[in-house]
């Protein structure tokens, strides 16, 4: 990861100057996860969770992953790896691509050391909504399919060893999976 950060700094694509952080001209801030926890703790109707998912999905789909694609002329697995590197650099955890099947529009991403798990500890809730949205938005760009959705099927906060995100076309999720995770989808 540090080699990736060094390359970005050397190329002036990651800038830490005059009280600002920019990555590929996208303005960033370092923000405590405790703010997201506070919001989600107050979210009795799942509205904030869905808003975090949709905002992560749409901002990555329409803005950030497009900037990465254009700057690096990256497509497919190359763009996916760049987005993984950026997510890890940003502190979203350690990402592994467990399955990538662009033909069938399916991707399974595993994350360990989730900052949401580190903030929450053990709970019975799924907590990585914005990460799920970020993954989905990137994969919409990579696979060029706006019908993709992501669900978190495993969560470190639920005492699973990893957080696992399954992304595919919504109409390709089996009925049992859809029923079990319907509260995650918009």
Notes on the structure:
The protein is an alpha+beta fold and 186 residues long. It folds into 2 domains: 1-30, no CATH class; 33-184, Muramoyl-pentapeptide Carboxypeptidase, domain 2, CATH 3.30.1380. It is built from 7 helices and 7 strands, in the order H-E-E-E-H-H-H-E-E-H-H-E-E-H. It has helices spanning 2-10, 33-41, 47-72, 76-89, 115-120, 129-143, 175-181, and strands at residues 14-17, 20-23, 26-28, 94-101, 106-112, 148-154, 163-169. The strands form 2 sheets. It has a 4-stranded antiparallel β-sheet with strand order 4-5-7-6, covered by helices on one side. A hairpin with a 2-residue loop joins strand 1 (14-17) and strand 2. Helix 3 runs parallel beside helix 6 and helix 4 (76-89) runs antiparallel to helix 6.
Please outline what is shown here.
The protein folds into two domains: 1-30, no CATH class; 33-184, Muramoyl-pentapeptide Carboxypeptidase, domain 2 (2-Layer Sandwich).
What is the element layout, followed by pairings?
Elements: H1 2-10, E1 14-17, E2 20-23, E3 26-28, H2 33-41, H3 47-72, H4 76-89, E4 94-101, E5 106-112, H5 115-120, H6 129-143, E6 148-154, E7 163-169, H7 175-181
Antiparallel strand pairs: 1-2, 2-3, 4-5, 5-7, 6-7
Helix pairs in contact: 3-6, 4-6
Helix/strand/pairing category: alpha+beta
Count of beta strands = 7
CATH architecture identity of the largest domain: 2-Layer Sandwich
Mean pLDDT: 92
The major β-sheet equals: 4 strands, antiparallel
Question: How many angstroms does the end-to-end distance come to?
Answer: 33 Å
Count, helices: 7
Helix content: 40-55%
Which spans have pLDDT < 50 for at least 5 consecutive residues?
A: none
Find the CATH topology of the largest domain. Muramoyl-pentapeptide Carboxypeptidase, domain 2
**Count of discrete domains:** 2
């Amino acid at each position: 990861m540090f080699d990736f950060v060094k390359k970005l700094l050397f190329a002036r694509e990651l800038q830490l100057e005059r009280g600002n952080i920019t990555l590929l001209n996208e303005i960033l801030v370092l923000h405590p996860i405790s703010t997201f926890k506070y919001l989600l703790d107050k979210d009795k109707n799942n509205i904030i969770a869905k808003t975090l998912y949709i905002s992560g999905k749409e901002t990555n789909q329409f803005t950030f992953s497009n900037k990465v694609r254009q700057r690096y002329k990256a497509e497919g697995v190359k763009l996916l790896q760049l987005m993984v590197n950026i997510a890890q650099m940003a502190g979203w955890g350690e990402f592994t691509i467990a399955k990538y099947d662009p033909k069938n529009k399916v991707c399974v991403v595993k994350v360990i050391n989730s900052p949401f798990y580190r903030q929450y500890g053990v709970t019975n809730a799924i907590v990585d909504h914005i990460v799920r949205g970020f993954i989905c938005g990137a994969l919409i760009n990579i696979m060029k399919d706006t019908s993709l959705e992501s669900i978190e099927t495993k969560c470190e906060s639920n005492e699973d060893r990893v957080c696992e995100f399954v992304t595919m076309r919504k109409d390709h999720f089996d009925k049992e999976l859809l029923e079990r995770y319907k509260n995650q989808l918009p």
